[in-house]
UniProtKB/TrEMBL annotation:
Keywords: DNA recombination, DNA-binding, Transposable element, Transposition. The keyword Lyase does not apply. InterPro entries: Transposase_mutator. Required for the transposition of the insertion element. Belongs to the transposase mutator family. It comes from the Bacteria. This is Mutator family transposase. Transmembrane segments: none annotated.
């Protein structure tokens, strides 16, 4: 099929015909091309399809425009110097719609360096993003290669896919040392268990520190590999690193009673309140409960952690213990053992409680991590596992920063934090 000439000029998002100077109706143009393709029996996708030919035309037009700018004269014009056009060479590039064969223009002295399709590059940047996105979902290099073969009809080697994903190693190092905000109203410390083959397959915890910024965004501050035996020294290194990256103060740190963690937090930031994570407390309660009773247990516990005061919470907990203590005494004991770390939660305004106890914000990122980890099964080493977790983090935010909204109604929470932590809040955010 001979595709109609699509050479146009774009001005203020309008396509202008360079010959007539008229605005081209893009919908009308698309309909005309589709009708032409249908008449000639050309498919929309696939090798030789309409999209493939349009992509070929666009790329070749862009390459010729680049060469014109490089040489300083139009095709057929008078050369400014000795350098001039010198034919074309055929090159196949991998695009989001599959492999496309294009003719790349050349110059006589070989000084032309294309930007849109660089020399020695046989795939467009969009392909790299597809590979990274699939990798973030836990697909192996073999599975990604099979995906490209099945969906795009393109052969992409495992080595090529590995090279693409290895590019994020430098990005990961930069991300792990990037400057952080001076104040985080809340940080959460959580663990993701990953199977790592180090001689033998072992369960390795990777600790994720998530922060809520003063703008109400979820910010993944960092990811650290452990061995399950972490204590105060390990956590002090983690929090000292965060402090050295700019974190001057944390108002509330939410964690799950990890050994040595509260002491390390208060050594780093003396005034930080260490709070037992309500999400983890509820989740840990499920370990001892039958699946058929979980919904009922959550309903019975909700009056406890939504109580207006500590005394009211104690009264509601006694009612919970009377209802469920006979069947599940371990759950009652779990809450009693965690009561001292749970109590600070009851002193906060309901808006602050909502931020601390927003299960969706915490569980959404955890679900993505676990999905990717389960898809892979196990990793050859800690570096490979860390790369996968970073790719998941990277996918949260189109800018690659790993930030996303925490709660929609952030302003009421912001006001509650400013009043509850008056002085500390203004000092850090206004400097």
């Amino acid at each position: 099929m001979a595709v109609a000439d699509t050479t146009t000029v774009v001005v203020d998002d309008e396509m202008i015909d360079p010959v007539t100077g008229e605005i081209i109706d893009q919908k009308e143009l698309a309909e005309r091309l589709l009708a032409q393709a249908k008449e000639q029996g050309v498919s929309l996708t696939g090798p030789g399809g309409l999209l493939s030919q349009l992509t070929k035309n666009v790329l070749e037009t862009a390459l010729n425009a680049e060469l014109t700018e490089h040489l300083g004269h139009e095709h057929g014009g008078t050369p400014i110097g000795e350098n001039m056009r010198n034919g074309t060479r055929v090159k196949t590039v991998l695009t989001e719609i599959g492999p496309v064969e294009i003719e790349v223009p050349r110059d006589r002295d070989g000084s032309f360096e294309p930007v849109i399709v660089p020399k020695r590059k046989r795939r467009l940047d969009g392909i790299d993003q597809i590979v990274l996105s699939l990798s973030a979902r836990g697909l192996t290099t073999g599975e990604i290669a099979a995906h490209f073969d099945e969906v795009y009809g393109a052969k992409v080697s495992k080595d090529t896919i590995s090279r693409i994903t290895e590019k994020v190693a430098g990005e990961l190092a930069e991300w792990s040392s990037r400057p952080l905000d001076a104040l985080y109203p809340v940080i959460f410390v959580d663990a993701i268990v990953v199977k790592v083959r180090d001689g033998q397959v072992r369960n390795t915890p990777f600790y994720v520190v998530m922060g809520v910024t003063v703008n109400g965004e979820r910010d993944i501050l960092g990811i650290w590999a452990g061995d399950g035996q972490e204590g105060a020294r390990f956590w002090l290194q983690v929090f000292t690193e965060l402090k050295n990256r700019g974190v001057e103060d944390v108002l509330i740190a939410v964690c799950d009673g990890l050994k040595g963690l509260p002491e390390a937090i208060n050594t780093t930031w003396e005034q930080t309140v260490v709070q037992q994570c309500i999400v983890h407390l509820i989740r840990n309660s499920f370990r001892y409960a039958g699946r058929q009773h979980r919904d009922a247990i959550v309903r019975s516990l909700k009056p406890v952690y939504t109580a207006p005061s500590e005394q009211a919470a104690k009264d509601r907990f006694e009612e919970f213990a009377a209802e469920w203590g006979g069947r599940y005494p371990a759950i009652v004991q779990l809450w009693k053992n965690s009561w001292a770390e749970f109590v600070p939660f009851l002193e906060y305004d309901v808006e602050i409680r909502r931020v601390i106890c927003t299960t969706n914000a915490i569980e959404s990122i955890n679900a993505r991590y676990r999905r990717a980890v389960r898809a892979r099964g196990h990793f050859p080493n800690e570096a490979a596992a860390l790369k996968c977790l970073y790719l998941v983090t990277r996918s949260l935010d189109p800018t690659g920063g790993g930030r996303a909204r925490w709660v929609m109604r952030w302003k009421p929470a912001l006001n509650a934090f400013a009043i509850t932590f008056a002085g500390r809040f203004e000092k850090t955010t206004h400097e």
